[in-house]
Design goal:
- The complex is a heterodimer of chains A (about 130) and B (about 100).
- Chain A is mainly alpha-helical.
- Chain A is built from four helices and two strands; from the N terminus they run αααββα.
- In chain B, helix 1 packs antiparallel against helix 2 and helix 2 packs antiparallel against helix 3.
- Chain B is elongated and about 50 Å long.
- The chains are: A mainly alpha (about 130), B mainly alpha (about 100).
- At the A-B interface, helix 1, helix 2 and helix 3 of A face helix 1, helix 2 and helix 3 of B.
Chain lengths: ~130, ~100
């Protein structure tokens, strides 16, 4: 008898009904309101350049070419630096969590320990080594 | 121009898909992906209202949210790695030793 592939599910979807109900409520609310026409950025707006100017807190007019208009925004240099520190902290935290210690020695993925070197390895890369 | 309500509806859909994933799944990796969906739903709203008001602040905020999401994923995957090492599984219901 042949079998067909089945979707692997974990537990029940009953709890997920809350998410569906939330979507129905949000959808009903959003369809009931009306916003004014979007202001938009206008023709010839240099959005990417203006974003760069906002991130580094420099005057947008300094980097605009002819025919390009700057989009209004604020300076975010301090936030940019804080995010930089947060990202480095997260990177260090991830490495600390992922570090594995064998017999008091830090072991990282892809680095062989003394035990690995002594272990016989078959030609196909698996354990063994008896090629006879 | 597409009205803001449409973006709000799209954002609500993405958010609810993320919430659905969190409520129904037990795999920690799928949890992480679902949280990312919910964060990106917020990003859609920020960019939509940036266009609505003709101001770039919303787009800059969404960039910062993405950077925070990257930091969150780095820590999250580290935690999942430790979870797998200690419980030989990434099922979030198996890790009960820190439960009250």
């Amino acid at each position: 008898m042949t079998t067909k592939p089945e979707l692997q599910t974990e537990g029940s979807f009953v709890a997920g009904l809350a998410a569906v109900a939330l979507f129905v409520v949000l959808g009903a609310v959003f369809m009931g309101v009306s916003f004014p026409t979007p202001a938009g950025f206008g023709e010839g707006a240099a959005i990417t350049k203006s974003l760069g100017a906002a991130l580094f807190d420099i005057a947008p007019s300094a980097i605009m070419d002819e025919g390009e208009t700057a989009v209004p925004g604020e300076g975010f240099l301090v936030v940019f630096e804080i995010i930089d520190i947060v990202l480095v902290a997260a990177l260090v935290g991830a490495v600390m969590l992922a570090r594995r210690e064998v017999a008091g020695q830090s072991v990282t993925l892809g680095v062989e320990t003394k035990e690995d070197e002594e272990m016989a390895v078959a030609a196909d890369g698996g354990p063994g080594g008896d090629d006879s | 121009m597409i009205p803001a309500e449409t973006y709000l509806l799209l954002s609500a859909a993405v958010f609810c898909i993320g919430l659905f994933g969190i409520l129904t799944r037990r795999n920690a990796l799928i949890f992480l992906m679902s949280v990312e969906l919910m964060l990106n739903a917020a990003n859609i709203n920020l960019v939509a209202f940036s266009l609505q008001h003709g101001n770039l602040t919303g787009q800059v905020f969404s960039l910062f949210t993405m950077a925070l999401a990257a930091a969150e994923v780095a820590i999250g995957i580290g935690i999942i790695l430790v979870l797998y090492r200690n419980f030989s599984d990434v099922d979030v219901t198996k890790a009960t030793t820190m439960r009250w």
